[in-house]
Amino acid sequence: MRIAVIGLGGMGSALAERLLDEGHELEVWNRSPGRAELFDDRAGILADPDAATADAVVVSVADDDSLLQVALPDGAARSAWAGMLVVNASTVAPATQTTLAAAYGGRFVAAPILGAPHAVRSGQARWLVGGPASARSTLAPLWAAFATTTDAGEDPARASVVKLLSNQMLLVGVAMVAETVRLGRAAGLEDDAITDLLRDSPMLAPGLANRIDGLVDPDHAGWFTGPLAAKDLTHALGLGGAESPVTTAARDAYLEVAAEGWADADVTALVELGRRR
Ligand SMILES: NC(=O)c1ccc[n+]([C@@H]2O[C@H](COP(=O)([O-])OP(=O)(O)OC[C@H]3O[C@@H](n4cnc5c(N)ncnc54)[C@H](OP(=O)(O)O)[C@@H]3O)[C@@H](O)[C@H]2O)c1
Q: Is the pTM of this model over 0.90?
């Protein structure tokens, strides 16, 4: 399939690499120079998103505002993408998927991704796919790039709801374990003792267990930044009117630690909250 990948951050780059490995023909674009050029011997580099000539355009950008700037410049669908299927792989609010579906009609599919960039690269990630059946079916070669696809049905907004609920569990969980590490350290336990406790604990789900090294790594070099986490939790809180004090507290903690200088670090930097104050 001929696919244009728009946005080459951690996830977009990993996705582009996976699609190349799977034998797809690629076009790539990124707002800032440098990232697209890493693909110059393997993909066509687009000067502008309007230059895409692929069968499908897959957008992977930071948030709702950037997605709307890329996919709906001047508030309308890009006429240059007229014959193409448009796939949004970014994590955004359900209402944003609905806005894009209204603009692109039956050609729009929401496909947020469950999994880290390394899982995307190895094909172990999961698509959460919502959109018209005919478009989902035409895009079968794209879904085949990952081990698993969850079909969220005809409504693109539903794919966002599933994605946001999953991230809410992950991110509140990371916030909880970050506090376990802080409390353990405060009580005088060495990091080795804390990581042994975490690795042996039946309380820790697999999705949290792969954060243990990041929590005790003083650089918190990872793949999922605090501002992206705060964005996802804000959207999760927007799903319902009920009180969600635990999710609210976790969201505020990610914002606070980012403001303390950890905005480019992994979510595990939450363990540093207040240290620089
Ligand atoms: N990281 C993860 O583990 C993970 C997992 C699942 C889903 N996601 C979701 O996947 C999406 C991408 O995440 P990421 O980790 O790749 O983020 P990232 O590394 O921060 O990359 C963000 C990308 O968005 C682009 N961008 C930002 N503002 C833009 C704008 N106004 N116009 C055009 N492009 C813009 C950036 O371009 P520049 O290079 O020019 O800044 C960059 O390509 C997010 O929605 C995230 O929530 C992430």
A: yes
